[in-house]
Amino acid sequence: MSATNTTTSVQESDALGKPPYVNINSQATSLRQPSPMAGQHRPGPSRHKSSIRIEDSFTQPRDIEKHSKLPYFLRMHGSITPRMIIPLAFIGAWATLITCISKFVHPLVVSDLLLTVLGFVVGLGISFRTSSAYERYVDGRKYWAQLSQTSRDMARHIWIHVEERHAKDAQLGKADLLGKVSALNLILAFAVALKHRLRFEPYAQYDDLEPLVSHLSTFAGDAFDPDTSTTKPKTPWKRGGEYLGLTFAESNPRKAIKRSKKNLGNLPLEILTYMSAYIDSTIKTEQLPNGVQQAMVF
Fold first, then answer.
1. pLDDT tens digits for 24-35?
2. 0.70 exceeded by the pTM?
3. Please, are residues 218 and 264 in contact by the beta-carbon 8 Å criterion?
4. Which one, of 185, 235, 233, lies nearest residue 212 by Cα?
5. Contact 193, 210 (CB under 8 A)
């Protein structure tokens, strides 16, 4: 039936001198099923993720698709404004109290020389603290950049210079390839484990670390206890205090270490031990015969 209609339409078009018209819908077969989303609205890709949590504006990673035209000192993302609210309010209240006492109760007179000396001492203290804090920040950035560069170099040397014995045996070649991939994962796991250790997070059951070290036998993995290692939800007062930078509201960062009933070990050091064992095995099996390459890996 559909073939007859198509032939008739083509013949009529030839007779009138027009290009042939073929009705595609009339040629539908049983293999052409309608889409299950037909007639439904398909939402387009969302360019921006909205959030109702105010702390996302200060602590979460910046959305690269957004652009702020405000100058840097007015941008709230990554700002220390929440931590400065309480100190500034206290200093303002204290200055207001001193001013009211001096104006309405008893005049408070301070020598100009004393103000000069105190200003000089306070300026020296602030300058020293600022310079020392910036030096610590720069040192941390330098060491972390050095770790990233060393990790990339080591991963590149392992992936390129460690030989795969496919010519000898297909199974050996697959095992060598799997060993190289595992070594690269261990390099990444070392950086992630070091980050958690610096944050006093001693276990291995974290979302960014567990896929990399779950196959290893480590003290941190054996010491994990869901009953004592699970963090309790914070109360609104505690979250507000931490958000405003109140020290008495902050939790003890070593709480997880103190609650552990087993030896936590040193997870980054254990990962390095596994890496050393892998490098030694490649040297013994002559997969890394060149001494220069061995020195680069070590």
1. 344 444 434 444
2. no
3. no
4. 185
5. no
The Cα angle at residue 107 between residues 103 and 108, in degrees rounded to 5: 115
Neighbours of 241 (CB within 10 A): 17
Cα 70–Cα 76–Cα 77 angle in degrees, nearest 5 = 105
Contact by Cβ (8 Å): 186, 274: yes
Asked whether 270 and 218 are in contact (CB, 8 A), the reply is yes
Can you point out the beta strands (E) in 19-104? none
CA–CA separation, 242 vs 86, rounded Å? 12
Tokens 């496919």 belong to 166
Structure-model confidence comparison of residues 153 and 23, the more confident one: 153
End-to-end CA distance of the chain: 77
Amino acid making up residue 168: K
> With 0-12 CB in 10 A as exposed, 13-18 as middle and 19+ as buried, what is 158?
buried
